[in-house]
Structure formats: structure tokens, C-alpha cells
């Protein structure tokens, strides 16, 4: 059972930046695709970005293009979501999820973290 833990959420002003981190204590972490998903109040969970075990990136949301990037450091068993130029509409609980070895949609990811709240507000 892969246990994922997110960190890095918080309150940020519009235009600001945050970096989220996803980690798991798992020897085979590098063999998993890791995706970031988010769920805003009253809305369905949606995909943001995903990175495969080989480093290929899938962008699920046009709204984050040019603002968010995903990266992974397999030596540290971490995947990062760098979020720049944040907007109030980015406010959501952000989850990381895993599936071996390719990125898939929200319904098909196998393991989920508990989420970290990102609030963009002045």
C-alpha cells in the first residue's frame, strides 16, 4: 500500500507562488506516475499535472499552462508542483495520486494522499 503525503499548502496572495511536495516511503516510488489533482468547494476533482515514471508530463488543465510545473526528484522520493501567478480560482484542496507507471485520469489513479489546502486570497 503506497502512502502519499502532501505538504506545502497555505494561504497566498493573488500573483504569489507556492511549491507543493508529494512524498511516500516506498522503495519503488520512482516506478510510479505521480499526478496532482485538485478539488475546489462544490466542484468535482480535476487533474492538474502528472509526471510518469520516465518523466513524461501530462497536462490535464489548460488553466494552469504557463503557470504550474511538475517535477520529480527520485533520489528524494518526491514530486513537486510549482505554482506561480496564483489566482483565486486556484483555491482548492490539492491531492497527489499515484499509478504505475503511466498517468491516467482521476478515476483510475490507484493511491491518493489526504490533500493539502491552497487558498489564494488577498
Helix count equals 0
- Rg on CA atoms, Å: 13 Å
Q: In angstroms, what separates the terminal alpha carbons?
A: 39 Å
Percent of residues in helices comes to: under 10%
Amount of beta strand? over 45%
Number of strands: 11
The description of the largest β-sheet is: 7 strands, mixed
Sequence stretches where pLDDT stays below 50 over 5 or more residues: none
Q: In terms of structural class, how would the helical and strand content be classed? A: mainly beta
Mean pLDDT: 95
Global shape: globular
What string, H for helix and E for strand, traces the elements in order? Answer: EEEEEEEEEEE
What does this structure look like?
This protein is mainly β and 122 residues long. The chain is built from no helices and eleven strands. It has strands spanning 4-7, 10-12, 18-24, 33-39, 46-51, 57-59, 68-73, 78-83, 92-99, 111-112, 116-120. The strands form two sheets. Strands 2, 4, 5, 6, 9, 10 and 11 form a seven-stranded mixed sheet that branches. The chain has a four-stranded antiparallel sheet with strand order 1-3-8-7, with no helix packed on it. A hairpin with a 5-residue loop joins β5 and β6 (57-59). It is globular. It starts with a strand and ends with a strand.
